[in-house]
Specification:
Elements (H helix, E strand, L loop, with lengths): L8 H9 L5 E5 L25 H13 L4 E5 L9 H10 L3 E5 L8 H10 L5 E4 L5 H7 L4 H17 L7 E7 L6 H14 L2 E6 L16 H15 L14 H4 L2 E4 L5 E2 L16 H13 L26 H8 L29
Parallel strand pairs: 1-2, 1-7, 2-3, 3-4, 4-5, 5-6
Antiparallel strand pairs: 7-8
Helix pairs in contact: 7-8
Amino acid sequence: MYGCLHPDYAEEIEYFRDCRVYSVQIESTLSCTQGCLYCYASSEEAPTRVLPRDDIIVVLDSSAKMEVKAVDWLGGDPLLGSDWYDLMTHAMRMGLKNNVWTSGIPLANIDIARKVVEVTEGGFISVHLDSLNDEIYQRLHTGDPKSKIEAILKGVDNVQSLGKKPENMINCITFTKLVAGEDVQKTIRYFFDKRGMRTCLTQMCAAGLAREHPEWMPTIEEIKGACESRDENNYPKSELSMSSMDVNKFYCGGMICVTVDGDVTPCSVIRKGFGNIHEERLEKIVEAHRDELLLTHLRRPENMPGYCSSCEHNSVCWGCRATAYYENGNLCAEDPKCWRNPGNYTISLGEPLGPHN
C-alpha cells in the first residue's frame, strides 16, 4: 500500500472508502529554481505568483473543519515561500500532517533541511530528480545541471542525517521520452538501493510548459518499461500495479488541490477548477462538488471506464485521471497511457497488440 505515499496508509484507505478528503494539496508558489521545461503549472508568459498567506490560513482552517489529515505543500517549490515554515508550523498546531513536495535544492541548506524534518513529522518529503545524467537533466531543465543534481542529493543526505526515514521519502520523476529506458531504470534503482527511497513516476501531460514539447511524450512501450522497473524495485512483493499512475487510487481519490489561483481541482496536474476559494470557502466547494473532486463515480469497478472495469489491478488503480482529461477531455475516460490496456497498443496496420507483444 506504499502507493498511497502517506505513512498512515490504512487511515487513508478508510477515508477513500468514506469518500472523504484525506489530504489537501496547496500550491503555495510557482517560484522554483529547478526550471523544469515541462512544468504543468507554468507557461512561458506566467509571472511568478503566490497564493497569499491569508488565503492559505483560510484553507488550513477549512481543512481542519473537514477533519482532513494532511496537507501536501506544492509549487513551484513550496520551500521558496517567505513564510513556509510558519505556515507549516501553523498546520501542525491544527492537527494536520505536512507533506512537502520540493525540488530538493533548498534542502542542501542544513538549516532549511532541519526545519523541514521538524514540520514533516508523521508525513513525507518528496524531492524531484528526473535523471542522474548531467546531459539528460540539462535538456529538461534550465541552469547548470551538475550543481543542481549535487544540491538535490546533498539535500537528501541532509534530511536523512537529521532523522527522516527513507521509507517516508520519495523521489519524483516526471517521465518523459528523454529519460525512457536505461536512464530511468538507473535512477529508480539508485534511489531505492542507495538512498532507500521509492519513486513517484509522474506521467508527462500536455499542460503548461509541456505543451511546447510534444516530442517528449513517451510511448506506451516506454511507459511499460518504466512502470515495470518501478514495480520491480519498489514493490517486489506486490502482485498489484498502478499502471501508468505514479500513486494508487487511494491517494488520488482522497485528495484535492488548491492551485495558486485559488481554483479547487481533483489533482494538481488537472488545471480544471470546480469552485474557487476566493468566491466560497473550501468546505462548501467540497460539499457541492464532491463527486467531481473525489471521482466518486469510479469507486465501483463496474463504473470504471472500458478496460479498467475488468482489469485485475483495479482494486488499487483506476488509471491516471490527468492523462484521461488531457487526451480525452474527460476525467472519467479510459487512461490512454495505460500499458495494460490492449486497446492502447497499435501497429502501423492499426491492429491492436497485447501489452506483452
